[in-house]
Structure formats: structure tokens, C-alpha cells
Specification:
By secondary structure, this protein is mainly α. Helices cover about 75% and strands about 0% of the residues.
Length: about 400
């Protein structure tokens, strides 16, 4: 990436992100070196968050191709840029799975006492199979991200509709494969931290949070890139109106799935299920449990309900930030309680992880964005995307 192509207005922001990513990485690595279990849990959290944001960018692009949407073509490169976070997050996940596999309590049980789990659960939680599945998920995601991005960049040079049609076919295939692999990955990497608890809607719950936070990240990047210049000629207020509508809709969808999971566990009142909720609503975690609902739905809903706010850069950015903070809180509640069941007091490793993810995703996305054209100039429908929203 040449400095000449990087807007001067983004230079200060870039420096801050470099500082955040570097500082967070140093502190987190120190925690890993000191053997702090909390630091390993935070590495899992941060890596999974980066994987989710990278996948959200890819899913956003695939969804537009598969649905034949035109309005979002001007935003396509923002989604493509976010996929740059996927390899970094995947590397972190694999580091945890290989270097600190004992983070999963079933590993010790199944290794030392194979009779701890029986039947399908014993086969599914076999470590070699567990690790092999992780590699397969990641390889599939990375291939789709590379293939669709490569076709999109080639279209800048070759033009025409053929590469768009090719990506439409890839997008349809990806969405089917993604639905299965992301469901299984979230079950493997997050739900199996507490192997005696299970939720049949855990995959769709993770999808709702993943795509909601991805929409928020796309919105923030698009707002900043329009302000700084690269997208100023291509993105109008009406584009942000549509993004605001999507955030509002998926925030409500997240709240619906959240309530379904909580209500069914509360109503059934089974010991093996309620313990999961009991930990997260007591011993200091209860405040975060409520905050999670406020950040992911109540506050964004109230903020984006007026139509004008969806086109107001400040209101839309505030809603997007709330959603991203909500996603961090949601993952924090899913991953950290088993490692600190009686106290929700944050550790320095938590702050380091937040800084690393924020800085890392921003830097990787911006670097990828400025490697080529800011919009798909070879797409014949680009002009319609820019002008049809008026």
C-alpha cells in the first residue's frame, strides 16, 4: 500500500490503530507467556471475534451477489476489505487449539478417562477430529474469501458480467456451506467450553450476533471512508439509510433469538441447563447480562427507530459502536464465566484483547481496501448502484 493512496485524514486514525494493536498484542503475549489461563481465554475471544468480523464481511458480499442487490455494489469493497481479518483470527484460533488445548475441560476428561463421554459425544469431542474440523472450516472460508475477492478485482480490469455471474454462483454455494460450518465452529470453539451444557439454537444465535456486528463494522468503515474521501463520490445518505435499516432489523432478530434461548431454559428449569444462565445472572455477571441486552438491542433500536437518524452520520455511528460493544459483551459472557465464575471484574488481558481486535481489524481492513480500486469499477451496474438510491 503506497502512502500516496492513503488519505491524509486517515493518517492519525491509522497511527492510533497501530498503537492499539501493538500495545494489545504485547500485553496479551505477556499473559500467555506467564501462563495465565484468563489470557488464553481472551485470545480465544479475540480470535473468534476477528474470525466473525472477517466472515461477516464475506457474508455481506455473498448476500448481495446471491440476492442480486444493486444498491450495495458501491459498498462491496468495504465488505471485501473486512475479510482481511479472517486469516489473523484463524491463526489465533489454531494457536489456542494446538498450544493450549486444555482450555477445553472435555479434553482432559476424554484423554485421561475415555469413559467420561460416550456415544456420539465421545466421537465428536475426540481431539484429532476436533482439530481436523477446525482446519477444514478455516480452509473453506479462506478459499471462498480468496476466490470471490479475486474475481471481483479481476473484473476491475476485464469488465463485463461473467465474473459477477461466477461470484453469484460462488456466493450461493458459500451461503449453504457457511450455514453448516459456522454453526459447527461456534459449537466446537465456544459452546464446548462448557461441554455439559447445550443449546439447539446456539449456531443461529452466533450468526445473528456475527452479522449484526459485521453490519456495524461495514457502516463505520463506510462512514469513515466517505468522510476521508475514497468513497465520497459513490456513497450517498440513502446507502446509510439501508445500512441503518439492516442494523435495526438484525438487532431485533438478535433480541428474538436471545429471548428464545433464555425463555426456553428458564421455562424448562432443568438443572443441566439453568446452571449456564445462573452463573451469568449472578456473582457480578448479572449487570453484564443486562448490559448485553441493552447494547445489542434496546439502545440501537431506540436510536435508529427515527428514519432521519439512519442517515445522520453521528447517530448511525453511535448505534454501530453500541452494537460492536454489545458483540464484545456477548462474547465475553459466553467465554469468560467458566474461567472466573464468581467474579466479572475485568482483567488487563481483557482490555488488551479489545485493543488488539479493534486495532487489528481496522488496520487489516484499511490496508486491504487501499490495495485496489475503492469500488468495483468493472461492474456494469456500479452506476446504477450509485444513482438508484436517490
Amino acid at each position: 500500500m503506497s502512502d500516496a493512496r492513503f488519505p491524509q485524514r486517515l493518517a492519525a486514525f491509522r497511527r492510533w490503530m497501530q498503537f492499539a494493536a501493538a500495545g494489545g498484542a504485547v500485553v496479551l503475549v505477556a499473559g500467555l507467556w506467564l501462563g495465565r489461563e484468563r489470557a488464553w481465554a481472551d485470545l480465544l475471544l479475540g480470535s473468534f471475534a476477528m474470525v466473525c468480523l472477517g466472515l461477516a464481511g464475506l457474508f455481506f458480499v455473498a448476500l448481495q451477489y446471491a440476492s442480486g442487490a444493486v444498491w450495495s455494489i458501491a459498498l462491496r469493497r468495504v465488505g471485501e476489505a473486512m475479510t482481511a481479518a479472517l486469516p489473523a483470527g484463524a491463526a489465533g484460533i489454531l494457536l489456542v487449539l494446538i498450544a493450549h488445548r486444555s482450555i477445553y475441560p472435555w479434553y482432559g476428561k476424554s484423554w485421561a478417562n475415555p469413559e467420561s463421554y460416550t456415544g456420539f459425544k465421545q466421537a465428536w469431542l475426540s481431539y484429532p477430529f476436533f482439530l481436523a474440523r477446525a482446519v477444514i472450516y478455516i480452509a473453506i472460508w479462506l478459499w471462498f474469501a480468496w476466490a470471490m475477492s479475486d474475481n471481483s478485482r479481476r473484473q476491475d480490469v476485464e469488465g463485463g458480467n461473467e465474473l459477477s455471474r461466477r461470484n453469484t454462483r460462488l456466493a450461493a454455494a458459500f451461503m449453504v456451506v457457511f450455514g453448516v460450518t459456522f454453526w459447527l465452529a461456534s459449537t466446537d470453539w465456544v459452546m464446548s467450553l462448557e461441554p455439559d451444557w447445550a443449546s439447539t439454537i446456539f449456531g443461529i444465535y452466533h450468526f445473528s450476533g456475527m452479522f449484526l456486528s459485521g453490519l456495524a463494522a461495514v457502516t463505520l468503515l463506510a462512514l469513515e471512508l466517505r468522510r476521508a474521501g475514497p468513497l465520497r463520490a459513490y456513497i450517498e445518505d440513502a446507502h446509510f439509510l439501508d445500512l441503518g435499516r439492516l442494523i435495526l432489523a438484525f438487532s431485533t432478530f438478535w433480541a428474538y433469538v436471545w429471548f428464545c434461548q433464555y425463555m426456553l431454559i428458564w421455562y424448562a428449569n432443568l438443572t443441566e441447563e439453568t446452571n449456564y444462565i445462573a452463573i451469568r445472572t449472578g456473582s457480578g455477571w448479572g449487570k453484564l447480562f443486562v448490559l448485553n441486552f441493552l447494547l445489542n438491542w434496546v439502545l440501537p433500536f431506540l436510536l435508529l427507530l427515527p428514519r432521519a437518524n439512519k442517515m445522520n452520520p453521528h447517530a448511525l455511528a453511535a448505534a454501530a459502536v453500541l452494537v460492536l460493544l454489545g458483540r464484545v459483551t456477548d462474547l465475553y459472557l459466553m467465554i469468560l464465566p467458566p474461567f472466573s465464575p464468581k467474579s466479572a471484574w475485568p482483567a488487563i488481558w481483557d482490555a488488551a484483547t479489545l485493543a488488539l481486535v479493534t486495532g487489528g481489524v481496522a488496520l487489516l481492513s484499511l490496508n486491504r481496501f487501499f490495495r485496489g480500486e475503492p469500488v468495483p469499477v468493472g461492474d456494469p451496474l456500479l452506476s446504477e448502484s450509485v444513482h438508484s438510491v436517490h
